[in-house]
Design a protein that fits this description.
about 250 residues; Archaeosine Trna-guanine Transglycosylase, Chain: A, domain 4; Methane Monooxygenase Hydroxylase, Chain G, domain 1; protease; 2 domains; peptidase activity; PUA-like_sf; Lon_prtase_N_sf; about 25% strand; Lon_prtase_N; single chain; 6 strands; five-stranded mixed barrel
Length: about 250
């Protein structure tokens, strides 16, 4: 098993390969991570790993609170994730390549990264200023009948978009052609659907592209049927999530 050690950025969301991730970095542990990444030459990838939080807080508590008002706020790289941080995270995540890391005058950072490869979490280290993880890179196998499944998912996804736009009483937000490569389709649809984090995580860690597409086909049909009976839905971008406040 070949592994790599990278900085670890836990989020309350799932990052998929090929998808853009904007970050507003203000906590000191993540500022330290960005300062370290900036030491990497510009012609080399500035990589970190993103994992979805299973049990914990994306932003550490910053002040005492109930029920114990005398307790001190947590500090350090593992704040909010318990005594064994590895147990707080889902085991499959995604490597992010930071195309832009811009430091603001107040010391916070504006970051724009893109998901690249899926990884499996092997171990987590919390001895430094920020979390790091030993990671195993996962290969993406096509599986059986990935191409025809992708065609079916695209058809269902277009219906899902139309239903969602109609429920919001507005037109579709994108007129761009959707990709037809099965792996890309599977990740785009997984990221674009309005699903909870556990479901998105299940799609991320699917054993192969075909399995992910089969799951998406069932979800799309189910979600489209639900939307048909729920005419009022909150607005949400179909292709990008909100900026994370880490």
């Amino acid at each position: 098993m070949t592994t790599v050690r990278l900085p670890l950025f836990p989020l309350n969301s799932v990052l998929f390969p090929g998808l853009v991730l904007p970050l507003n970095v203000f906590e000191e542990r993540y500022r330290a991570m960005m300062r370290e990444l900036l030491k990497t030459p510009e012609d080399e990838p500035r990589r970190f790993a993103v994992v979805a939080i299973r049990d914990g807080h994306e932003v550490a508590p910053s002040a005492p609170g109930m029920p114990d008002p005398t307790s001190l706020p947590e500090r350090g790289p593992a704040a909010g994730f318990g005594t064994d941080p590895a147990k707080a995270f889902h085991k499959v995540g995604c490597i992010a390549d930071a195309a832009t890391i811009r430091e603001r005058t107040d010391g916070s950072f504006e970051v724009l990264a893109t998901g690249t490869n899926r990884v499996r979490l092997v171990s987590v280290e919390a001895s430094g200023p920020f979390l790091t993880a030993e990671l195993e890179t996962l290969t993406e196998e096509p599986g059986d009948e990935a191409a025809p499944l992708a065609e079916g998912v695209l058809r269902s996804f277009r219906q899902y978009q139309k239903r969602l736009a109609g429920a919001r009483e507005r037109s579709l937000t994108t007129g761009a052609d959707l990709p037809d490569e099965p792996g890309v389709v599977s990740y785009l649809v997984a990221a674009a659907m309005m699903l909870d984090t556990p479901t998105k995580q299940r799609l991320l860690q699917a054993p192969d592209t075909a399995s992910r597409l089969r799951d998406e086909l069932k979800l799309l049909r189910s979600e489209t049927a639900i939307i048909r009976n729920l005419p009022s839905l909150p607005a949400s971008d179909l292709t990008r999530g909100p900026t994370s406040l880490n």
